[in-house]
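Design request, tokens follow.
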């Protein structure tokens, strides 16, 4: 629309002409929105609110009298409030590039002032403190011209050819170098140890690999040998089983043949031997019985014969008494004793004959041997003497 103006987001629109601005300002300030401006009767200018940068390279003398070249960078901008915009607009609206120049000069003066009250050691070791003091001292002056400082960075501090900073840093450099050497030695030692450990690990791995390979090779060789021997072993095993079966069959055949021989020869032979033995026993028993019977018969016949001959024997014995002078002292009893004595002599003779013929003693063919004993006993019991001339 004709006459309607809108400032950019990082700009402030300054409208001059007509009514004055806020607080008696010679112009009105518009930010963030548009405004209808009458052409010809109003004049519009724009002031940047963007961030600006100023560099400072200033030679400063410390409290120790040592010259230092300090380089710094200042980041600043026009303040967002209307008062800051009005102050900056009145000073820099026509030449906004001069804000950086003026800001650099302001900070250069504050740097010289503050560095003059500090030592080199403090400046080098406490840069943030230096930057903070410079900001604090320049804040009021910068506000007067409508500017605000966002940051101040000390970029470098150089003592030129004096070598003070180098000398000051020498002990630290030596300590740092010593620490660096120690660290390097430790790193070298650690590296060597790591290499040795890696070499040991590699050797151990190689050894284990060789062992495993040897085991695998041995297993492969063993498997191949077993595979090569499998056929002959199987054949030998089969032959062994055949031989075992044949041996068992032969043993069974031999056992069967033995049983057949026992049944066909041994058992019949044993039966025949037993039969012959029994027959022999029977025959022997028969012959024994016959012999006993024959012997008994012979004894009976001998005894009968001797008994038959006994009267003749007594007769012959009594023949010796013929013509003998016999004195009988006890009458009839004495005669009986003489007769009994003759009979006893006959019996004695009979016993002698029987012994000579093998007849057992005490047997007299039906006449007991006790007869003679009884006769002797009779003679002893009578107590009467018998005389024979």
């Amino acid at each position: 629309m004709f006459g309607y103006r809108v400032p950019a987001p990082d700009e402030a629109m300054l409208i001059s002409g007509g009514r004055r601005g806020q607080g008696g300002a010679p112009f009105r300030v518009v930010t963030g929105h548009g405004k209808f401006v009458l052409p010809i009767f109003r004049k519009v200018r724009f002031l940047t609110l963007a961030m600006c940068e100023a560099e400072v390279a200033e030679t400063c003398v410390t409290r120790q009298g040592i010259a230092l070249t300090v380089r710094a960078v200042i980041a600043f901008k026009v303040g967002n409030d209307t008062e800051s915009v009005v102050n900056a607009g009145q000073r820099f609206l026509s030449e906004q590039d001069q804000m950086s120049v003026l800001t650099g000069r302001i900070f250069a003066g504050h740097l010289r002032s503050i560095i003059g009250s500090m030592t080199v050691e403090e400046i080098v070791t406490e840069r943030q403190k230096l930057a903070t003091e410079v900001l604090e001292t320049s804040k009021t002056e910068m506000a007067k011209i409508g500017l605000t400082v966002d940051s101040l960075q000390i970029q470098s501090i150089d003592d030129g050819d004096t070598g003070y900073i180098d000398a000051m840093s020498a002990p630290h450099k030596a300590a740092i170098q010593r620490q660096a050497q120690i660290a390097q030695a430790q790193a070298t030692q650690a590296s060597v140890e790591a290499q040795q450990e890696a070499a040991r690990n590699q050797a151990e791995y190689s050894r284990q690999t060789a062992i495993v390979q040897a085991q695998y090779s041995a297993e492969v060789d063993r498997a191949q040998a077993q595979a090569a021997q499998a056929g002959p072993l199987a054949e030998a095993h089969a032959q062994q089983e055949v031989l075992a079966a044949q041996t068992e069959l032969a043993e069974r055949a031999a056992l069967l043949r033995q049983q057949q021989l026992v049944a066909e020869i041994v058992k019949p032979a044993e039966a025949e031997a037993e039969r012959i033995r029994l027959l022999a026993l029977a025959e022997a028993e028969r012959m024994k019985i016959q012999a006993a019977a024959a012997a008994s018969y012979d004894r009976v016949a001998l005894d009968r014969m001797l008994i038959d001959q006994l009267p003749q024997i007594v007769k012959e014995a009594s023949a010796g008494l013929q013509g003998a002078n016999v004195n009988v002292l006890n009458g009839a009893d004495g005669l009986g004793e003489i007769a009994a004595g003759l009979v006893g002599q006959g019996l004695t003779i009979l016993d002698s004959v029987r012994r000579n013929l093998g007849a057992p003693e005490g047997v007299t063919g039906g006449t007991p041997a006790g007869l003679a004993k009884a006769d002797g006993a009779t003679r002893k019991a009578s107590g009467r003497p018998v005389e024979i001339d």
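Comment from the thread starter after seeing the answer: thanks! Strands lie at 4-5, 11-16, 27-30, 35-36, 43-48, 52-61, 67-78, 147-158, 326-327, 387-388.
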